[in-house]
Design brief:
about 35% helix, 8 strands
C-alpha cells in the first residue's frame, strides 16, 4: 500500500531519472495528516530514505526528523495558499531555470500559452523577483499573490509547483520543464500562441488557473 513517505521517495527517484534534479538540488514535500513531510537539507532526490524525512507542522516548525531543506518556506506558503494542495515540488531543472533568467511574458505568467498542456496541467506561472534560496520574504510574497496559481518561477533559481497529490505535482513540474524547453528552442522566432479564448476554454474545462491580466 502506498504511503506519503513512499510516494515522496518514488517521486524523487523519478525526477532524478529524468535529469531534472542535478546533484543534491531540489526538494519535495507532501502532506501527511496534520504534518508536512519534506526532504532534508542536502538530500539527493535519487536516493531519498522514506524513513529519514523531516517533519514540519503547518506553520513550518520542525517537529521531527533531520533538519529540513532551507527551502521549506516556499512549500509551506503553497500549502497555506490552498488547502487542497497535497504536495510541492521544487527543482533546479535546466530549461525552467533558464526561463527564470529571462524577461517574463506577462505580470502573471513568465511563460506564454505555448501549448494546450501547459495551460491544462500548469497554468499561469508568475516570475517571483530574485531572493536568496530559503528567503522567508519571497515565500510570503508567493503566499500573498492575489490570483490563482499552482506554479511559479523563482528568478535566477528555478520552478516550484504544487499539486493535489505527489503525482499531480510531479506531472505539472515535468510539463513546465517541457514547455520551457520548447520556448527556448523557439528562440526569437515568431511563434503562434494559444489565443485568449482558446486558453480560457482549456482553463475552464480542466479547472486550471489562467487569469485575465495583461497579455494573459
Amino acid at each position: 500500500m502506498s504511503t506519503p513517505r513512499a510516494d515522496l521517495a518514488a517521486a524523487g527517484a523519478h525526477l532524478a531519472a529524468l535529469g531534472l534534479s542535478p546533484g543534491s538540488s531540489g526538494n519535495l514535500s507532501v502532506r501527511d495528516g496534520e504534518h508536512i513531510l519534506i526532504t532534508p537539507t542536502g538530500a539527493d532526490l535519487a536516493r531519498i530514505d522514506p524513513g529519514a524525512l523531516s517533519v514540519l507542522d503547518p506553520d513550518g516548525q520542525h517537529v521531527d526528523g533531520p533538519r529540513p531543506s532551507k527551502e521549506f518556506p516556499l512549500h509551506t506558503a503553497l500549502y497555506r495558499r490552498n488547502p487542497e494542495t497535497g504536495a510541492v515540488v521544487h527543482l533546479h531543472s535546466r530549461h525552467a531555470t533558464a526561463v527564470s533568467c529571462l524577461t517574463p511574458w506577462s505580470p502573471r505568467s513568465a511563460v506564454p500559452p505555448l501549448t494546450p498542456y501547459f495551460v491544462m496541467r500548469v497554468g499561469q506561472t508568475p516570475l517571483l523577483p530574485y531572493a536568496p534560496p530559503g528567503d522567508a520574504a519571497q515565500a510570503e510574497h508567493l503566499a500573498g499573490l492575489d490570483f490563482p496559481l499552482r506554479a511559479a518561477l523563482l528568478q535566477n533559481h528555478g520552478p516550484v509547483v504544487a499539486g493535489t497529490d505527489m503525482g499531480a505535482a510531479v506531472e505539472s513540474a515535468v510539463e513546465l520543464e517541457e514547455v520551457c524547453a520548447l520556448l527556448l528552442a523557439l528562440g526569437d522566432r515568431p511563434a503562434r500562441l494559444l489565443g485568449p479564448e482558446e486558453s480560457a476554454l482549456l482553463a475552464a474545462k480542466y479547472a486550471s488557473p489562467w487569469g485575465t491580466g495583461d497579455r494573459v
